UniProtKB/TrEMBL annotation:
Top-tier EC class: oxidoreductase
Location of the active site: 128, 241
UniProt name for this protein: Aspartate-semialdehyde dehydrogenase
Family that this chain belongs to: Belongs to the aspartate-semialdehyde dehydrogenase family.
Catalytic activity as recorded in UniProt: L-aspartate 4-semialdehyde + phosphate + NADP(+) = 4-phospho-L-aspartate + NADPH + H(+)
Residues noted as binding substrate in the record, renumbered to the chain: 155, 234
Biological role stated in the UniProt entry: Catalyzes the NADPH-dependent formation of L-aspartate-semialdehyde (L-ASA) by the reductive dephosphorylation of L-aspartyl-4-phosphate.
Molecular function as annotated in GO: aspartate-semialdehyde dehydrogenase activity; NAD binding; NADP binding; protein dimerization activity
Pathway: Amino-acid biosynthesis; L-lysine biosynthesis via DAP pathway; (S)-tetrahydrodipicolinate from L-aspartate: step 2/4; Amino-acid biosynthesis; L-methionine biosynthesis via de novo pathway; L-homoserine from L-aspartate: step 2/3; Amino-acid biosynthesis; L-threonine biosynthesis; L-threonine from L-aspartate: step 2/5
Swiss-Prot/TrEMBL keywords: Amino-acid biosynthesis, Diaminopimelate biosynthesis, Lysine biosynthesis, Methionine biosynthesis, NADP, Oxidoreductase, Threonine biosynthesis
GO biological process: 'de novo' L-methionine biosynthetic process; diaminopimelate biosynthetic process; isoleucine biosynthetic process; lysine biosynthetic process via diaminopimelate; threonine biosynthetic process
Binding site for NADP(+): 11-14, 39-40, 158-159, 314
Gene: asd2
Length: 336
């Protein structure tokens, strides 16, 4: 049993779900420490019937902490993770800062659990758009080896944090009375709109969010030959990222085989009955931990292709749930 577990960023949108997941999954630790930056330090959070005061994230805060689950912006993680490790803690980090560091394993417990065995104190959880796609691709990759993926995302405003959802509400309300709410979190008004830009320009006309889907997918599968062509779009949906995915495999797969593979994989739920209007939608997946797939069909434009639709709660499997599952895996390994 771990003595002390710390949650950094406990008052944020993802941090709150981390706390809910810790209770739901009943992780074995004795003491919970909550930490946050200056703005939220000193506030109080309810956990398991107790009130816990949020401490300040600063050097010295991790003495006697065994494991940390952190949900903070990249620059905060870049700053605190090294001193947390020096003070003796292992950090499960949800920010983008460490993901592509060769010494840091990038983990989805259903896909590459073995990666937790080798680390220097920091373990990373992938970006939300990558996580749900890679979970869905994993059974197909294992059975038929993926060569190429073409993916378009429809990403919820909560991916940009609590301010994203505030801006969605403000933008929709303004639009309904013929006004424009000036955007701050997003590049353009999000109410009744779609924005084909998430992040900033990164490589050859692709954004940082899109290149995460390329690099992180290869790292998790340990296969640099997988080709990924992503387009990431922000949509006026509060929670739940959706993805239209076309995958080409080395070995051809029938639709029936793909459905059987999806059904046999932990963490995937198939909702696929077009005739009865059944397919995954963000409002049905909100608050659920699985990755949902549907509209599974053959690519009629080329051989060896399967097309499908994938939805997941971006704050859960895309962030909090995956990080808590990594922590759970670490705890299981250490008790062996
Ligand atoms: C977004 N994927 O949806 C990002 C959050 N990590 O903005």
């Amino acid at each position: 049993m771990y003595e002390t577990l710390a949650v950094v960023g406990a008052t944020g949108a993802v941090g709150r779900i981390v706390l809910e997941q810790l209770q739901k999954r009943d992780l074995p630790f004795r003491k919970l420490k909550l930490l946050a930056s200056q703005r939220s330090a000193g506030s109080e959070v309810r956990y398991a019937g107790e009130t816990i005061k949020v401490g300040l994230l600063e050097p010295g805060a991790f003495n006697n902490v065994d494991l940390v689950i952190a949900s903070t912006p990249d620059e905060v993680s870049a700053d605190f993770a090294p001193y947390a490790v020096k003070e003796g803690a292992v950090v499960v980090d949800e920010s983008g800062y460490w993901r592509m560091d060769p010494k840091v394993p990038l983990i989805i417990p259903e896909v590459n659990p073995e990666a937790v065995d080798k680390h220097d104190g920091i373990l990373a959880s992938p970006n939300c758009s990558t996580t749900q796609m890679v979970v869905a691709l994993a059974p197909l990759h294992r059975a038929a080896r993926i060569r190429r993926v073409v993916v378009s995302t429809y990403q919820a405003t909560s991916g940009a944090g609590l301010s994203g959802n505030v801006e969605l509400n403000d933008s929709v309300r303004s639009a309904l009375v013929g006004k424009t709410h000036p955007p701050k979190t997003f590049q353009h008004p999000i109410g009744f709109n779609l924005i084909p830009q998430i992040g900033s320009h990164k490589y050859e006309g692709y954004t940082s969010e899109e290149m995460k889907m390329v690099y992180e997918t290869r790292k998790i599968f340990g296969d640099d030959e997988i080709q990924v062509c992503p387009t990431c779009v922000r949509v006026p949906v509060a929670t739940g990222h959706s993805e239209s995915i076309l995958v080409e495999t080395e070995k051809p797969l029938s639709v029936e085989e793909a459905i059987e593979l999806f059904n046999g994989f932990d963490g995937i739920t198939v909702v696929d009955d077009l005739a009865n209007m059944q397919y995954p939608m963000p409002r049905d997946c909100d608050g659920k931990d699985d990755v949902f797939v549907g509209r599974i069909r053959k690519d009629i434009s080329s051989p060896n292709g399967i097309a499908f639709w994938c939805v997941s709660d971006n704050l859960r499997k895309g962030a909090a749930t995956n990080a808590v599952q990594i922590a759970e895996l670490m705890m299981k390994q250490s008790s062996k």
